[in-house]
Amino acid sequence: MNDFHDYRLWQTIQQDNALHAGVLISVCRSAGSVPREVGARMWWRPSCTLGTIGGGQLEHQALAMAAALQVDLDVGEGEGECRLERFPLAARAGQCCGGTVWLYFEGVPAQALGQRGDRVINLNEQLQWHDVLPVAPPPLYLFGLGHVGQAVMKLADYLPCPLITHDERTHVEDDALTLIQTAVAGSKFLIMTHSHALDLTLCAAVLQRGDAAYCGLIGSASKRQQFIAKLQARGIDPTTLTCPIGAQGQGQGQGQQGMSKIPEHIAIAVAQELINLHAQPIH
């Protein structure tokens, strides 16, 4: 899974490494129940830590090992030391997860990560790790910055994709249609303008693309029924329309009964809906 959080973390690590040497700690293999997935990373130097490999005793012990590598790196030349460590969480870290994590430690000289690409690393005679660097996933386009739209914006740092906003009160309708038409495949769209007529125009444009990962429309079950009828009358398949938005994030399926209507609660539920969608395997 390629998450925007992982991409931004990697960018931040690269920026810090442009000035400082440090130790990159990566989860390169796992078995059983573990706190983080393969590819999770953490950056350590004496006055800075970025990211997490799962917290708890696992991370506490890993940072102590990173400190030892950092000492070697400070007095050495060229590439720093690399090290593979196997952590049975119950036996070695006292964590009841019960799984096993393999951590790859790399002492990294300053400015060494700027040109790094995907790699295949021979961990030992039997194991290889395909270290694939994160890239930015397709964005979420948010149309309409009313109460719910502004609440979604406050969660931008926690969404699994970049956020691009558009408000019809400060942009013309053609701008919104251009954004939809030029978006990359797999983009997500969240529609909540002040106008139901504009909502319908934008929904139609998104659904006609046929390659959107998500088309969410704010509104009630009644609005959903009306939009489905109008879209079908235009010959547009509304099957992938999500309305009401946030229903799945609040555990309500496509229903609305029992859902909170507080803007911030809707925004949180939409964020959860998008996270759930992002975590689904691609077939």
Helices and strands, with pairings:
Elements: H1 4-17, E1 22-31, E2 41-45, E3 48-51, H2 56-75, E4 82-88, H3 89-93, E5 100-108, E6 119-122, E7 128-131, E8 140-143, H4 147-154, E9 163-166, H5 173-182, E10 188-191, H6 196-209, E11 214-217, H7 221-233, E12 241-242, H8 263-279
Helix pairs in contact: 4-8, 5-6
Pick out its properties:
36% helix, alpha/beta, elongated, five-stranded parallel sheet, 8 helices, five-stranded antiparallel sheet, 283 residues
Give the biggest beta sheet.
5 strands, antiparallel
Low-confidence stretches: none
- Beta-strand level of the residues, as a percent range? 15-25%
Shape: elongated
What would you say about this model in short?
This protein is of the alpha/beta class and 283 residues long. The chain contains eight helices and twelve strands. The radius of gyration is 23 Å and the shape is elongated.
Structure, described:
- The protein is of the alpha/beta class.
- The protein has helices at 4-17, 56-75, 89-93, 147-154, 173-182, 196-209, 221-233, 263-279, and strands at 22-31, 41-45, 48-51, 82-88, 100-108, 119-122, 128-131, 140-143, 163-166, 188-191, 214-217, 241-242.
- The strands form three sheets. It has a five-stranded antiparallel sheet with strand order 3-2-1-5-4, with helices on both faces.
- Helix 4 (147-154) links the parallel strand 8 (140-143) and strand 9.
- Helix 4 crosses helix 8 (263-279) and helix 5 (173-182) runs parallel beside helix 6.
- The longest helix is centred in the first third of the chain and has 20 residues, at 56-75.
- It is elongated.
